[in-house]
Amino acid sequence: MFRLSVVDHVRLNFDRTSQNYMVHARAAERLAALTARVRIGVLVLMGVATAAATTSLLDPRRPFQITAAVAAGLAFGAHALYLAAGVEGRVNAHRSCAHRLWLVCDRYRSLLGEMGDGLLDPASVLQRRDELSAQVHAAYDQGFSLDQNAYEGARQMAEDASGDEGATDEPRDVLPASLHSDGETPAQNRPVQH
């Protein structure tokens, strides 16, 4: 069993919040790129449909009419799927969440700096830590109902990519050595009563 000091707990929460910020920022970027590709695809299909329809007016042969109908149908179908999926709403939700998490990360950095400089008493540290935890939870107050599975998948991929091996029944030190205060492990730190 290991113990976490308050400093290590704040650093761990800051690290997790930073990871969640990256997950949401990357998801917003990925979905925004998808949105751009879909829009360009629909625009190209509409251009083909317009060119084929114009050509069929000048030269009323069957292939031009079929091409115009097929291109217009594909453009309509792609745009309908795009609207039904609500990709733009997902992009906005991820961007908004990432923005909120970035602000909380900045507040965590500020708290860690003030703690490192010895500017805060233990009660203030505990109060600020709890307020920051509440702000992280408040960042998720907006809905991710349509994208919740995608978010969970992205979060799991981020954890897997960071080298998070399979879970064991034994508690383990999840803080990297660089996040420990003065290079100590949590078991060496003095526990703080809550």
Brief account:
The protein is mostly helical and 194 residues long.
Question: What are the SSEs and their pairings?
Answer:
Blueprint: H1 6-58, H2 62-85, H3 87-116, H4 122-139, H5 148-161
Low-confidence stretches: 164-176, 183-194
**Shape designation:** rod-shaped
How many alpha or pi helices? 5
Approximately how much beta-strand content do the residues carry?
under 5%
Distance linking N and C termini = 18 Å
- Determine the fraction of residues in helical runs and give it as a percent range: over 70%
Rg of Cα set: 26 Å
Q: Please outline the major beta sheet.
A: none
How many extended strands?
Answer: 0
The oligomerization state is: single chain
Overall pLDDT confidence: 80
| SS-based class | mainly alpha
Question: What letter string, H or E per element, gives the SSE order?
Answer: HHHHH
Describe the protein in words.
This protein has 194 residues and is mostly helical. 72% of the residues lie in helices and 0% in strands. It contains five helices and no strands. Helix 1 (6-58) runs antiparallel to helix 2 (62-85) and helix 1 (6-58) runs antiparallel to helix 3. The two termini are 18 Å apart. The relative contact order is 0.18. Residues 164-176 and 183-194 have low confidence and may be disordered.
